[in-house]
Amino acid sequence: MTADMDDRTTADFYDFESVLSHEDRKILLKTRAFMRNEVAPLVNKSWEDGVFPRELIDRFRESGLVGLSFEEYGDRGPAAGHLLSGMMAMEMSRVDASVATFFGVHNGLAMYAIHSGGSQEQRDRWLPGMARMDTIGAFALTEPLGGSDVAAGMRTTARREGDVWVLDGAKRWIGNATFADHVVVWARDVEDDQVRGFVVDRGTEGFATEKIARKTSLRIVENADITLTGVRVPERDRLQNVDSFRDVAEVLRATRSGVAWQALGVMVGAYELALAYAKERQQFGRPLAGFQLVQDLLVRCLGNVTASWALLLQLARLQDSGVLEDEHSSLAKAYVTTRMREVVAWAREIFGGNGIDLDYDVARFFADAEAIYSFEGTREMNTLIVGKAITGESAFV
């Protein structure tokens, strides 16, 4: 069973899509058709198997949807604004959050890190192939003993020996890492204690990945543990414009907004599934949709979707205006993911017992929401960022 996905989403109660330009809406509809035709038929089996369907890489490559934010790479015209990029993330997550995460890691975290932290020569060397998806990227920041505190507690080290850097340490939960061609690895320079960025190619001696198994969320994403044992990286592969963790934070500020859009997409997908099911499922001689308590749950879902969508529209305007601050992204991520958690629970509730059957899709949304709620900064950490901004007082430990 799938929700109706024609030219208008049933969750867009206030017609938010109308703010897009004609050209941007065409791209959004292209994304919608791609997810419906190429991704939706694969996701439940892939989720159950815990394997990313590699054939999607070729299909993404042919779609023309990759690299739209980087106008100088490819012949797609002006770069996509943050509103279109956000709507695309929403549209992908509306069908499957795992595939949206794969795309966000490659097209967002990895490519943006190289674009913002690399020299012109490095951008020209890596980004054209990544924009065509000839090569796949990953982003290695989180560590086995460091998540929220990775800025101050990064244990992976970089030691310079002439024109070569030697990396030692470990990373965890790294999406795409099992098959990525280029992995952006963040490490602490032992000389000055500052964080540096390095692009490590798959197959480099001393660089090993092991897929994390037995996950209950985002099972299609191939997260991996990475170990770095004396990995030698030439100076030319160090991101030349990265001087400290502030440069990493710049990447996270932009991509945290993308995660909020993903959370909106999960809400939209779960709500639409529940609405369609409530109209079809008969109980006591009439559709579930005809019962007051079911309508109450559906309206709560729609309210969360609508409030979150409105917040994210303004967030995109702040980004496109160049005035986005950390606290803006943090409030969006904390608020929207919390509302997402409510929506997927209410949507699953409407399905009753069928809500835990993967064939009805909503179980996948329910499970995947938990990972989105946690990554790119927990609710608690993002709350403290906003709290400091509005009070002027730091409550961090």
Automatic annotation (TrEMBL):
Residues 247-390 form the Acyl-CoA dehydrogenase/oxidase C-terminal domain. It comes from the Bacteria. GO terms for molecular function: acyl-CoA dehydrogenase activity; flavin adenine dinucleotide binding. Pfam families: Acyl-CoA_dh_1 (PF00441), Acyl-CoA_dh_M (PF02770), Acyl-CoA_dh_N (PF02771). Keywords: FAD, Flavoprotein, Oxidoreductase. Residues 138-230 form the Acyl-CoA oxidase/dehydrogenase middle domain. The keyword Calcium does not apply. Its cofactor is FAD. This is Glutaryl-CoA dehydrogenase. It comes from Streptomyces fructofermentans. The lineage of its organism: Bacteria, Bacillati, Actinomycetota, Actinomycetes, Kitasatosporales.
